[in-house]
Amino acid sequence: MSVNPQSKPDPGWSPLGLLYSTYEKQILAQLDRSRFPRHVAVLADGNRRWARTNAPGKSLVVGYRAGADKLKEFVGWCDEVGIPIVTLWVLSTENLRRSEDEEVTPLLKVIEDLVVDLAAAPTYQVKVVGDLSLLPDPIASTLAGAERATHTHRGLNVNVAVAYGGRHELRDAVRSLLASEAERGTPLRELSENLEIDQISEHLYTAGQPDPDLIIRTSGEQRLSGFLLWQSAHSEFYFCEALWPDFRKVDFIRALRSYSQRQRRYGR
């Protein structure tokens, strides 16, 4: 049998890969799956730092592609253990404002390819959450089309947060609520006196979905950065030092173990 000298060995078949695989199975076997989260959200942080360390002198898009590949793996891990909803934050409104065109344009292409690839899965139902009006029209159109193509899928729900900001979402929710009530002829004073929390929730980007039970952030940062501000009120958090492209399945399983060992109080 000939071997392609340019091909890389499958890390899963290396001694270390086999060791991790065995360790992962042992941890999973010890966990109570009835205590797994229904909704996991992830701040996939550290792609640029990973690129600077692992591909010095090359474009940062190398890190974005590695991060996108890891996101697809992550979705597969969630599907494998039966988690029904996943939210991936891939681009914030702040990123759009502070980044140069030469960085944003290739990143948007990576995100476009990621969403199209996720939508191509036969069971994933993809939902783009964010303000698509902030994106170039061709990109926004592709993302919206990918979402529509999965409406009939009945498997894992995958939210992809693009051009997303927590304050931006709350602003849009209030605008949507006010417009809806105006169409019904509700006087503003009456609305201000009778407005309930659930009415606001119905106008969030994630309306109709349960709030995230577990939020994972990588790269050692320990803050939300505006991610799911409303929905995260009672979420559990798991912070990991690994840069996102280096996040392993064993890290994911450790996050599930940590979550399953917690006693959730929901503010009580």
Question: How would you describe this structure to a colleague?
Answer:
The protein has 268 residues and is of the alpha/beta class. The chain has two domains: 37-164 and 212-260, 3-Layer(aba) Sandwich (Undecaprenyl pyrophosphate synthetase); 166-204, no CATH class. 47% of the residues lie in helices and 10% in strands. It is built from ten helices and six strands. It has helices spanning 15-30, 47-54, 61-81, 93-98, 101-120, 137-149, 166-183, 188-194, 197-201, 249-260; strands at residues 39-43, 85-89, 125-129, 157-161, 214-217, 236-239. It has a six-stranded parallel sheet. Helix 2 crosses helix 3 (61-81) and helix 5 runs parallel beside helix 6. The radius of gyration is 20 Å and the shape is globular. The N and C termini lie far apart (64 Å).
Element layout with pairings:
Layout lengths: L14 H16 L8 E5 L3 H8 L6 H21 L3 E5 L3 H6 L2 H20 L4 E5 L7 H13 L7 E5 L4 H18 L4 H7 L2 H5 L12 E4 L18 E4 L9 H12 L8
Parallel strand pairs: 1-2, 1-5, 2-4, 3-4, 5-6
Helix pairs in contact: 1-10, 2-3, 3-5, 5-6
